[in-house]
Amino acid sequence: xxxxxxxxxxxxxxxxxxxxxxxxxxxxxxxxxxxxxxxxxxxxxxxxxxxxxxxxxxxxxxxxxxxxxxxxxxxxxxxxxxxxxxxxxxxxxxxxxxxxxxxxxxxxxxxxxxxxxxxxxxxxxxxxxxxxxxxxxxxxx
Amino acid sequence: xxxxxxxxxxxxxxxxxxxxxxxxxxxxxxxxxxxxxxxxxxxxxxxxxxxxxxxxxxxxxxxxxxxxxxxxxxxxxxxxxxx
Lengths: 141, 83
Fold this sequence. Notes:
heterodimer; A: 141 residues; mainly beta; 7-stranded mixed β-sheet; 3-stranded antiparallel β-sheet; 5% helix; globular; B: 83 residues; alpha+beta
């Protein structure tokens, strides 16, 4: 039987009742820094944040790159801006999208800008929720 | 796709510590459902329908990285699934 092994430099632990949320810091090159959490959504093409975070970063939401985002029940518009993301000991710049609707209920990290920057391992067994992250190009991975 | 992102990841200069905030949220989230909360570690700076004035006041107070979150009712299962 084949087996594969990955090693990770950072690890998050979760209690059994919690969702898989990623704690992250967002900023514009280090200024207007905000701490927040976003659900990990591997089915989402983009990272999509509630638009209030754009306001808190000092961004004008509608001046970003507009995208229509499809969902199972319809579509909405979101605007892309390049910001700095910090997760544990890793940092990168990425375009994330801020939802146009004021009442957008959650923020998520998805494939572009998050999962395409890291290797992510998940263990959701026996009520042990662990997310492990490492740089995509880290030696040994 | 209309946007190309820069792919490089670096060691972080700023290393956020969420441990105190996470404990506060585990203990108190149910008291604040439907509101935005602004925290500095395990200290609740304020809550309300609009966190912007609370964050502005926190920055004046010297809080450089406030934690900001809308508290959802997590008793409802969540489905993302947009693409």
